[in-house]
Amino acid sequence: MSLTPSDIAAEKAVQKVLADLEGQQQAMVDTVIQWSHVNSGSRNLEGLSAMETLIVDAFADLSPAIEYIDLPDGEGVTPTGDVVINKNGRCIRLFKRPDANRRVLMTGHTDTVFAKDSAFQVTRWLDDNTLNGPGVADMKGGIIVMLNALKALEASPYAASIGWEVILSPDEETGSLGSAAILTERAKAADIGMTFEPALADGTLAGARKGSGNYVMVVEGKAAHAGREFFEGRNAVVMISEIIGALAALTNGRPGLTVNPAVISGGVAPNVVPDRAVCRFNVRLEDPDDAPWFQQQLDQIVNKFGAREGFSVRLHGGINRPPKAISKANQMLMDAIADCGSELGIKVAYVPTGGCCEGNNLAAAGLPNVDTLGVRGGLIHSADEFVLVDSFAERAKLSALILMAFAAGALDDVLKAKAAGN
Fold it and tell me: Is the predicted pLDDT of residue 292 greater than 70, yes or no?
């Protein structure tokens, strides 16, 4: 007869390690404040390196094997439409007992959306339970939850029955373009996935997620004097305006598909016919089969407008996060995690979302996963980002019990469904 989360939570040894997490609450808060004050914007390689050192030092007590994985350079497009090379940081891989019969992949990211020159650099208390600061929720707080859950696992009777692997990437906030291949590779070596993006402030977790793609459309025309030689010019801003209309018209071309033309640049002065214009846009889609349809529509737009005399049109980008549909195995994992929450008095509910994260990548590789196991918080990606600090111990206890339940075999039905392709 297999154990249940209830059986495991009732064991005295398990109760002790979970209770010990309560005693780590203040240390977790102190750590997130320290880490939040280190700027680690996705393009701040120095700051990412500093975070790497802090994190590896924090994980040292677990005695993991450590691997650093350099990411390939990425391509970017400037506001004037020029192609540039962006340097990426490197992934941190920490792992223990890789040959165990049950293996979990735990993922997170060291980068934030806040650039080195951002005005948002330090923390402040909004009230006794609410801390505002860069990355406190997304997701330096999540890494701290992950770390303490693993410490509890290693102090439990179940540690020897599970192999764990942590991948921390430096480019999640820019779409995981460099780390996507690593996430896919490591997902195929695991049985379940746990990602530590923040839960909503009320504790709700993300279920199904839309896919996402980021693009840049660049139009090149011909400059001319707006008075003397107006008709000799080819106005790239006018053309990009037409293209934006065509892009926006693709919204609801497939159920749930949205296109958001978001950032526009072009021109140098009112008396010059602009010879270049740029539009950055995003697509969200619910069904993986919508990706080729959308690409076909983009190709038609490029060909149609690029055929006009005196103009050229080029497109950069693509779908970087496939949609995360909920398979049978993934639903079973979500249900098991809800059972673990119930044993701790934590209500676990799920909602579909249009947002994306590494959970999309893991699901696309066939790995059942839950991707919002971090702290409770909100207003992420803004200077109002906050974490509810009482969620540190709470969420660490939840993930610790999930890990112990997995190690004890309480989630083996999930593995059977995964193996069956369900």
Answer: yes
Report yes or no: 323 and 210 within 8 Å, Cβ to Cβ: yes
Q: Tens of pLDDT along 95-153?
A: 999 999 999 999 999 999 999 999 999 999 999 999 999 999 999 999 999 999 999 99
Structure tokens at 92: 């941190």
Q: How far lies 286's CA from each of 85, 185, 210, 322, 325, in Å?
A: 31, 24, 5, 9, 8
- The tokens of 299 are what? 């190709």
Residue-wise pLDDT for 326-344, tens only, equals 999 999 999 999 999 999 9
Quote the Cα angle for 358-361-366, to 5°: 130
Evaluate whether 45 touches 89 at the Cβ level (below 8 Å).
yes
Between β-strands 90-96 and 103-109, what pairing exists: parallel, antiparallel or unpaired? Answer: unpaired
- Asked if residue 329 lies in contact with residue 411, where contact means CB atoms within 8 angstroms, the answer is no
Phi-psi region of 36 (alpha: psi -120 to 50; beta: other; left: phi over 0): alpha
Pairing assessment for the beta strands 103-109 and 163-169 based on DSSP bridges: parallel
Q: How many CB atoms lie within 10 A of CB 334?
A: 20
DSSP state of 137: T
Torsion of CA 357, 358, 361, 364, to 10 degrees: -80
User: Which pTM value belongs to this model?
Assistant: 0.93
